[in-house]
Design a protein that fits this description.
26% of the residues lie in helices and 37% in strands. With 182 residues, the protein is an alpha+beta fold. The chain has a single domain, classed as L-fucose Isomerase, Chain A, domain 3 (Alpha-Beta Barrel). The longest helix has 14 residues, at 17-30.
């Protein structure tokens, strides 16, 4: 999955079809690979920072250091020897755009949220593909995500393309889009 996404053929795990659509959109907007991540944990006492993580299918384009290892989460179920090939590494400290496309099944509409932040070089000790992302008014964004039924996955690219993405989705496709901080 990492090699496919790095080669601009996005690949999303957990059968996340709308996550894959989000990956395609960010890739088209930035001309670079996109990655699916989990909004994971707050970062210490800093309300505008969070740990983002995936176990890891991140394209190598994202990572400042790369080690190939075993997929620790699945290893407990299928056996360690069947999970080799996972990339471990820290995401580069660079600007970022995030996007999540989802469906509102009750209204029969497509919805999305997007915004910009940056990956930091704050230290974090974990496995898989990971980083610390700083997003202005992050707690407000997380409340929006929860109150509006968005999934735990978010797609990010190492770019700053949120305004263009939102305009394309709203104006040309008629989707309901929230531009955080916009």
């Amino acid at each position: 999955m990492s090699m496919m996404s790095d080669g601009l053929r996005p690949s999303a795990c957990e059968v996340d079809v709308t996550g894959l659509v989000s990956m395609l959109i960010l890739q088209a907007a930035s001309g670079t690979p996109s990655a699916i991540l989990d909004w994971n944990n707050n970062f210490g006492d800093e309300p505008d920072k969070a740990v983002v993580f995936h176990c890891s299918n991140l394209p190598k384009h994202f990572l400042e250091t790369i080690t190939m290892s075993y997929q620790e989460i699945l290893a407990g179920t299928v056996g360690k020897e069947r999970t080799y090939g996972t990339l471990y590494g820290r995401i580069k400290a660079e600007p970022a755009t995030y996007l999540r496309v989802s469906t509102d099944d009750a209204s029969g509409r497509i919805k999305a949220y997007a915004g910009e932040g940056r990956f930091t070089d704050d230290p974090v000790d974990t496995f898989g593909g990971y980083g610390v992302v700083e997003v202005p008014r992050l707690q407000e964004l997380l409340r929006f995500i929860c109150r509006n039924g968005f999934e735990h996955h978010v797609v990010m690219s190492l770019s700053q393309t949120a305004a263009a993405v939102c305009e394309a989705l709203e104006v040309y496709l008629g989707w309901d889009v929230h531009l955080h901080g916009g």
